């Protein structure tokens, strides 16, 4: 009887069974896939929103720069003022470099090339002085053997809350008394000992293990040789960060040079650009070209040391 019943069932259809198994598996997977898509959908919306906001922020930053550069390539200042309120301001049908030639050439009515060189000299001197003074002060406060180190460090940090404008008149009076006004050095000196950069280097130097300095001392290295061979090379990102930040701050200084500089021989570019607004008839084409020239050194400085700057920020975040 068993044999007959088996024979009555007929051959097994494997294709039908596989298709049925696939359908069952599909029904089981569909709810899981639906649940997974439901969970990922809010995350994707957040990512799209972040991307949109970043693109909007980038557009807000880039548009003024694009307008500045495009306007500097227009040779007609009346055309610039007429098109500023429309999209035509971003387009340059006939680009020209006459504005750059007029401000940087040997026959320029305003010696902008000289002012540019003055700004470069002041920035370089200020950055080098800041790096030397800040690193040595931070190192001495960290490893020096003298009393009241913490009190001195607290006082240096407290100086940061005093705005520079509050002490500019006493500094101006002092610079006149010691006959340093209208020089390069008076534009650099007040900014070399910056409390914030001393504190920054102090915090970076603290992260270096004391065993490294002790090993160098056992090998016969002196106090300042350890600073030169150990602490400075291990903090290159911090050095680059201070170079960029102090370089930008020095390059954009306006009020202090305006007070202490009288002659064109040492006048920086910021004061020179402001002179375009001292007349009733403003040459917007030359003004935009001078602004582009002034922007380029800081942009090149940042792009050249970008990886060190990012590394410094990343290491600060890890330490924090």
Domains, number = 2
CATH architecture of the largest domain: Orthogonal Bundle
**CATH class category of the largest domain:** Mainly Alpha
Which of globular, elongated, flat, extended, rod-shaped describes the shape? flat
Task: Give the % helix.
Answer: over 70%
- Share of residues in strands: under 5%
**How many β-strand runs?**
0
Q: What is the fold named in CATH at topology level of the largest domain?
A: MetI-like fold
Following the backbone from N to C, one meets helices and strands in this order, namely: HHHHHHHHHHHHHHHH
Going by CATH, the homologous superfamily of the largest domain would be MetI-like
Structural class: mainly alpha
Quaternary form? single chain
Rounded to an integer, what's the Rg over CA atoms? 33 Å
Q: Number of helix segments?
A: 16
Quick check: average pLDDT? Answer: 82
Termini separation: 83 Å
Produce a short descriptive summary:
With 320 residues, this protein is mainly alpha-helical. The protein contains 16 helices and no strands.
Q: What does this protein structure show overall?
A:
With 320 residues, the chain is mainly alpha-helical. The chain folds into two domains: 14-72; 101-319, MetI-like fold. 72% of the residues lie in helices and 0% in strands. The chain has 16 helices and no strands. The protein has helices at 2-9, 14-72, 77-83, 98-104, 112-143, 149-158, 168-177, 184-188, 195-206, 210-218, 223-231, 236-251, 255-260, 269-274, 284-304, 306-319. Residues 1-12 have low confidence and may be disordered.
């Amino acid at each position: 009887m068993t044999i007959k019943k088996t024979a009555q069932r007929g051959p097994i259809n494997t294709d039908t069974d596989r298709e049925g198994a696939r359908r069952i598996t599909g029904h089981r997977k569909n709810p899981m896939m639906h649940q997974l898509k439901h969970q990922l959908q809010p995350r994707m919306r957040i990512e799209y929103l972040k991307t949109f906001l970043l693109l909007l922020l980038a557009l807000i930053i880039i548009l003024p720069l694009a307008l500045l550069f495009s306007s500097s390539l227009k040779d007609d200042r009346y055309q610039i003022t007429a098109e500023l309120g429309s999209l035509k301001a971003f387009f340059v049908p006939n680009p020209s470099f006459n504005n750059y030639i007029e401000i940087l050439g040997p026959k320029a009515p305003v010696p902008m090339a000289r002012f540019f060189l003055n700004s470069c000299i002041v920035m370089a001197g200020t950055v080098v002085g800041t790096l030397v003074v800040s690193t040595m002060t931070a190192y001495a406060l960290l490893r020096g053997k003298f009393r009241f180190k913490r009190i001195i460090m607290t006082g240096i940090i407290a100086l940061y809350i005093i705005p520079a404008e509050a002490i500019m008149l006493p500094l101006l009076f002092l610079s006149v008394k010691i006959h340093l006004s209208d020089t390069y050095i008076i534009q650099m000196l007040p900014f070399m000992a910056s409390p914030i950069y001393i504190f920054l280097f102090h915090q970076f130097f603290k992260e270096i293990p004391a065993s490294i300095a002790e090993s160098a001392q056992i090998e016969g290295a002196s106090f300042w040789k350890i600073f030169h061979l150990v602490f400075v090379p291990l903090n290159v990102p911090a050095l680059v960060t201070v170079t960029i930040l102090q370089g930008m701050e020095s390059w954009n200084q306006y009020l202090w040079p305006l007070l202490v500089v009288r002659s064109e021989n040492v006048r920086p570019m910021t004061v020179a650009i402001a002179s375009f607004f001292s007349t009733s008839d403003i040459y917007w084409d030359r003004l935009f070209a001078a602004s582009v020239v002034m922007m380029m050194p800081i942009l090149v400085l940042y792009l050249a040391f970008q990886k060190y700057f990012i590394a410094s920020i990343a290491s600060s975040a890890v330490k924090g």
